[in-house]
Each structure stands twice: as C-alpha cells, then as structure tokens.
Specification:
The protein is an alpha/beta fold. The chain folds into three domains: 290 residues, Alpha-Beta Barrel (TIM Barrel), CATH 3.20.20.70; 63 residues, no CATH class; 130 residues, Alpha-isopropylmalate synthase LeuA, regulatory domain (Double Stranded RNA Binding Domain), CATH 3.30.160. The protein contains 16 helices and 16 strands. The longest helix is centred in the last third of the chain and has 25 residues.
C-alpha cells in the first residue's frame, strides 16, 4: 500500500506542495443518490491511486458494516501512490478512549492514518454533544493522545470551525490548540455547513495559523500541516479552498467529482488544474494531470452520476465552442477563446455544429473525413445550408457529433450503407394485475445480399428495438456485442402541437474505449429512436472498418 506521506515525487519546495485527501468514499457517499458496492469502492480506490492522490478517506468503520468489510478486504491490496484513512469521532463524553468501541474500530481497520473529527463550535458542544466546553477539549486531546501512542498518523477535522470562529473565536482556536498539543499531524479547518465566504475563510485561517505557529515556537516542535475542508452550499467551495491555501493551508480535502452532503464538497478535479497550471503548486505526481479528465469520468460512471457538462476543466463543455466568431478565433489561435490547452487536463476541444457555427467550423469537422477540405469547398456550402434546414426542422447536432459525421460522409460521397432495415415492428404489453409490462420488437435487415430476421424483448420499446437490431446484425458484425447504450434523452420540439409534436431523440453509446452520440427526429418517438439507433450502429461499424483497413468505403 502507498505511503501517502507526500503529495508528489516532485522536488517542489514545501510551501508550493499541496497534500490532497479525497473523501469520495466517506463524505461523498453522503450525497443524495450516491451508493457504492464493495467492488465499486475498490474501483474508486484504484482510480484515485492511479491519479496519484496520496490519501483516500475510505469510510467510517464504526458506523456501518460495509465499511468494516471494505477495510478488512483492503488490507490485502497494493497501492502505488495512495494510503487509506479511516474516519471517526473523538471519544464519547465521560468515556476513556480505550473503552470506546468506535475508536477501537478505527484501530481494527489497520490504516496507518485516521481522521478524527471534533467540535469547534461552542453552540454544537452545548446543543449537540450536550457537554461543557472543558469536556469537549478533553475529548479532543485525550483521543488524539491515545491514538498517537498506538503509532497512528492523526488528522484532526475541526468540525464547524468557521461557524465557531465567527461566534466564539477564542474557543474555536482553543480546540485546534488542544489538537496540536496532543500531537495531531494535520489540523483541518472544516466549513461543515458550507455557508462561509472567502474573506471570512481567509481571516479565520490566518488566525489559526498564527496560533499554531505560536504553539510550535513555544514547544519547539514542528507546526502541523494546516488543512481545509469546504462544502459547496453557497457555490463557493473552490473559492473558499483557494482563499485558505493563500493563507497557508497545504492539506486539502474534497471529492474528485464534487458530490457529497447536500450541495457537495470541493471538487478536486476542478481545483487541481487551477492550482497546478495557474498558481504553480504541485498536487499530483509528474505526468498525472493529463489523466484527470478520464479518471474523473471513471469515478463518476462508477457512482452512476453524470459529470456536469459545464464542470471546469473536465466537463464535456469545458472547451466547447458554438458561436461562429469564437470557433473562427479558436481555429486561428487557440488562446483567443481557451484559457488553457485542453490536452493539459486530458480533455478535448469541441467545435459544435449549429446554424450559428459558421463555415470554418464545418470545414474543420469535415477534415476528419477529408483532410484536404477547406471552407471554400462546395460541400461545405452544401452542408451549411443543409444544417440550417435540418435545425429549422428540429434537428440539433451540437451534441450529436457521430450523426454529423455521417451527414458529412454522405455529402462528400464517402458513405456506403453497411446494412438496411427492410421492416421492423415494435409492440408493448401492459397487462393488468401484478404482471409486468414488457415490449417486444422484431427487425428484418439486409446485409450484403443476405436477409436476417431477429426478435428481442426489452424493458421498453426502444430497448426492445435496439436488442432486435443488434441481434439481427451481430452475425455479420460480431463486435456489435460490445456496444451498449449509456444515455437516452427525448425532447419535445414543438409543445404547441401536443401529442402530435415532433420529438428529438439523443442516444449515447459506448463500446468501452469510445463514446459517441447520435440524433433522430420524427413525430413518432419510435421512428426517431430508430434513426438515432441506426446512426449509432453505423458510426461504430465505420470506425471499426477504418481502424482495421485504414480506409472506408
């Protein structure tokens, strides 16, 4: 297992190094809709280790059996960069640490480091713990002292520190002084309610740092690493984290994707690039930053949540350009409308297809099919007019690059159909009583002079049609077995037409390494879905042929 004791192999000076702790598996699972199986948790651990995160807060063994099982199973894994931390609270009131079963569960987890949270807000001490202020300080110091005698690295999370500092700064500072005196290796200031603004964060961190420096000087001991743990309830988690770093915090807690309790935690994926590329800090081992987009997507997919398209640095829209002026500027010089090179974070530039995109964008996208094409090419003019006409009819290609690529191929004469649907039928049953509704579909396809008929059942008509089409085609194209649909969206184009309105269907598909999106439009939702499904299959097949034979058609 990794040591987790350094943020990087870099020789960067200590004041320019940021130590990261990812709490996806502890604070992150407290977010609504976030649930991980044991295997999911190991997938997340491996992803974070691959990225180079030094500390992974993996759960609370004293709170649920699943976390006990995780730490037991984790004792046999080998990590290159990361170390696991367990999480728990200070001892119970009026209970010796060695008599507290929750603290014993932390030791049983056998992690080299652990996080202990304690109250720093006098309001919480009185109203939640219901003990006096002196007992709370004793709970903090005795817990940390006991764990340190057992050879553990101890992170102290000063819960509600900033609320406590605003209402009773002397007591809030006394809690972190007690933690430091007891031997805490990290003192982490927590904006637990997420309601603090950057200026107050900065002032409180400065005060905390002064206290810890004074104590370190008087005790001739080393100042513990000061940390920040911010929540996003005012949308300021990253801003607050940056304010804390600028005042001296060098240990940063968050979750890679940003999900967590209520509005979430500091998103490390959106924070790390700013620290490394803009402010000159070192967060990850050398060479890891270009992998952050892919690893963030992997963690999000494991959690079964979408990454917000507009998420800085790693979102699908982070480097997307739609307006003609913007796209034209990007094609001339990237820095005109991009603050960094997308490749620095492993993301891609997207020039979106729309009626406002302009001929330069169409020509640039068409170069994927025909590298010699220019904006003066007749096909570009034809595509421009066709795109405007299609979008007037409800089509939208800005999020359906695969369908647009097929449109380009047809216009350039670089398209040959690999199959045809001769007929298809979709039926749905909705029996009464306890029987489960289901759908069936059959499809008759033609491939290279041969007909094939197949049928399938599905949880809905589109699922059944997808199954029937792929079952009919897999005899000719076995690699279609690898393809699955990952997203399906329907939008009514003209609500005034009520049930006779056209609908636009977007389908996202993947074969594992690749992800692509296709679109279909019709007044019949099944027909719109059929159009998008056919494009999805053709895009996959054409790509496979080009990769194998270096040519198509």
């Amino acid at each position: 297992m990794g040591s987790g004791t350094d943020t990087s192999a870099s020789s960067a000076p200590r004041e320019k190094r940021i130590e990261l702790l990812d709490t996806t598996l502890r604070d992150g699972v407290q977010g609504e809709g976030i649930n991980f199986s044991l295997q999911d948790k190991f997938t997340v651990i491996q992803a974070l280790d691959e990225l180079g995160v030094p500390w992974i807060e993996a759960g609370s063994p004293g709170s649920n059996p699943k976390d006990v099982e995780l730490f037991r199973a984790a004792q046999g894994i080998s990590l290159k960069n990361a170390a696991l931390c367990s999480f728990g609270s200070t001892r119970r009131p009026d209970t010796a640490p060695e008599k507290d079963p929750q603290l014993q569960s932390l030791l049983d987890a056998e992690t080299g480091a652990l996080t202990i949270f304690g109250k720093s807000w006098d309001f919480h001490v009185h109203q939640v713990l219901r003990v006096n202020l002196e007992e709370n300080l004793a709970m903090i110091s005795q817990t940390i002292e006991w764990l340190k005698t057992r050879g553990r690295i101890v992170f102290f999370d000063a819960e509600h520190f900033f609320d406590g500092w605003k209402e009773n700064s002397g007591y809030a500072l006394a809690t972190i002084r007690a933690a430091r005196a007891a031997g805490a290796d990290r003192v982490v200031l927590c904006d637990t309610n997420g309601g603090t603004f950057p200026a107050d964060i900065a002032a409180a961190v400065a005060a905390a740092r002064q206290v810890l420096n004074e104590d370190a000087s008087s005790n001739t001991g080393r100042e513990p690493l000061l940390g920040i743990h911010a929540h996003n309830d005012t949308g300021l988690a990253i801003a607050n984290t940056l304010a804390a770093i600028q005042e001296g915090c060098r240990h940063v807690q968050g979750t890679l994707v940003g999900f967590g309790e209520r509005c979430g935690n500091t998103s490390l994926a959106a924070l790390i690039p700013s620290l490394e590329l803009k402010l000159g800090y070192t967060c990850l081992p050398a060479g890891k930053l270009p992998h952050i987009s892919e690893i963030t997507r992997r963690v999000a997919e494991t959690a079964n949540v979408p990454i917000p398209a507009a998420m800085p640095y790693v979102g699908s829209s982070a480097f997307s350009h739609k307006g003609g002026m913007h796209s034209d500027g990007i094609l001339k010089t990237a820095k005109s409308f991009e603050h960094i090179d997308p490749a620095a974070v492993g993301n891609d530039r997207h020039l979106l297809m729309s009626e406002v995109g302009g001929r330069s964008v169409i020509a640039e996208r068409a170069k994927k099919i025909e590298p010699s094409i220019t904006r003066e090419h007749p096909a570009v003019s034809a595509l421009t007019e066709k795109l405007k006409a299609l979008e007037a009819g409800g089509w939208a290609f800005e999020g359906a690059g695969a369908s647009f690529e097929l449109l380009v191929r047809r216009e350039l004469g670089r398209y040959k159909p690999l199959f045809r649907i001769l007929a298809y039928r979709v039926m749905s049953e909705h029996p009464t009583g306890e029987s489960i509704a289901c759908s069936q579909a059959w499809a008759k396809v033609w491939v290279d002079g041969q007909d094939e008929i197949a049928a399938a059942e599905g949880e809905g008509p589109v699922n059944a049609l997808d199954g029937a089409l792929r079952r009919a085609l897999v005899r000719f194209y076995p690699d279609l077995d690898q393809v699955r649909l990952t997203d399906y969206k329907v939008r009514v184009i003209d609500g005034m037409a009520a049930t006779a309105a056209k609908v636009r269907v977007l389908i996202e598909s993947t074969d594992g390494p690749n992800v692509w999106t296709t679109v279909g439009v019709s007044a019949d939702i099944i027909d719109a879905s059929r159009s998008a499904l056919v494009d999805s299959i053709e895009y996959k097949l054409i790509g496979d042929i080009e990769r194998k034979f270096k040519a198509y058609p």
